Amino acid sequence: MDILFLRDFRLETIIGLYEWERKAPQPILIDLEIGLYDHKAGHSDDIRDTIDYGKVAERIRAFAASQSFHLVETLGEHIADIVRNEFGAPWVRVTLRKLAIMRGVKELGIIIERGSRL
């Protein structure tokens, strides 16, 4: 399996349980790993033979901007669903990090892995 990845993908969205968290969009950092079973793109050099990471990033950014969330788990689950269902990835790992949200904690978040790594 090949793994296409995006690291430190930054977006802003309304996320959190507390009223003060929901007043303005917060920055979220995402690490996204997308499994690819088909290796045609390495031989063809054609974007149609792989998953276009630009389109993935654009779709996730648009989705996050149009919604609000209470939990990082919910946002992560939606991102995993988008990558698998809309882009056909057999496997995805989504790491979400909220930044400096708690005193003494630089980042907090979740790692969600969905699908099969053959």
Automatic annotation (TrEMBL):
UniProt key word Isomerase: yes
Domain Dihydroneopterin aldolase/epimerase: 4-114
Class of this enzyme: lyase
GO cellular component, one term: cytoplasm
UniProt keyword annotation of Lyase present: yes
Family annotation (SUPFAM superfamilies): Tetrahydrobiopterin biosynthesis enzymes-like
Pfam families tied to this protein: FolB
Highest taxon above the source species: Bacteria
Single GO MF annotation: dihydroneopterin aldolase activity
InterPro entries named among the record's database cross-references: Dihydroneopterin_aldolase, FolB_dom, GTP-CH-I_C/QueF
CDD domains: DHNA_DHNTPE
NCBIfam families: folB, folB_dom
Described purpose of this protein according to its UniProt entry: Catalyzes the conversion of 7,8-dihydroneopterin to 6-hydroxymethyl-7,8-dihydropterin.
Family label: Belongs to the DHNA family.
Name of the protein this chain belongs to: 7,8-dihydroneopterin aldolase
